[in-house]
Amino acid sequence: MIAFARAGGDRFRGIRHTTTWDTDPSVLNPGYVTRQHQMAERSFREGFAVLGRLGLSFDAWLFHPQIDELASLAHVFPDVRIVLNHVGGPIGIGAYAGRRNEVFASWAASIRRLAVHKNVHVKLGGLGMRLGGFGFHETAEPPSSEVLANAWRPYIETCIESFGASRAMFESNFPVDKGSYSYPVFWNACKLLAKGATDAERADLFSGTAARFYRL
Question: What is residue 74's DSSP assignment?
Fold first, then answer.
């Protein structure tokens, strides 16, 4: 990381690390070799501590059953800025298919516990992936912005209510989500989701939070 920081001058802000793991192997990405409870490992935490010493941030990509593990990490390292990617990866396929209400309740409870840690932020997006079980990639016609906003509203509103707009930021997750909808349709859905926000809250959701978190 020190070498990256030197090479990047003042542009290197942090790292993103994938810890996605689940007991159901069908939901795993074969391109990423992960293991259970990685964030609790001594070697992982020794490396994580370096982020704090260097003033770097951590982007966390994991699945919803692992959110509480991230909360534990945030508690031990309160000075490291952390952002939870893709609203915490709620799973809707494999062993979790057909259990949306149950998954949502578990996910929402973990989100609220994580939000207690003020060093943690959340990215609002990434729900176009097959992982979420929404099936947008399987429809004859791509979904409209209204369809996306209606499907995502419970997740987005829970995150904003828990973290506040000052610790939440919209993210596109493109090109990964391109298989489900287009870039303009996604951002129009975000506008619909933010319709009831104040001007200051919208500014945070669309740019302010990201600018502060990544020191842009």
Answer: H
Estimate the crossing angle of helix 145-163 against helix 183-193, to 10 degrees.
Answer: 50
Degrees to nearest 5, angle at CA 209 with 13 and 174: 75
pTM: 0.95
Nearest-angstrom CA–CA distance, 88 and 124 = 9
Domains by residue range for the chain, with CATH: 2-213 (3.20.20.140)
Q: How many residues comprise the chain?
A: 216
Q: Which amino acid is at 8?
A: G
State how far the alpha carbon of 192 is from the alpha carbons of 43, 136, 146, 174, 188, in Å: 43, 18, 7, 19, 6
Residues 79-116 pLDDT 10s: 999 999 999 999 999 999 999 999 999 999 999 999 99
Residue with tokens 């770097």: 56
Structure confidence by residue, pLDDT tens digits, 152-185: 999 999 999 999 999 999 999 999 999 999 999 9
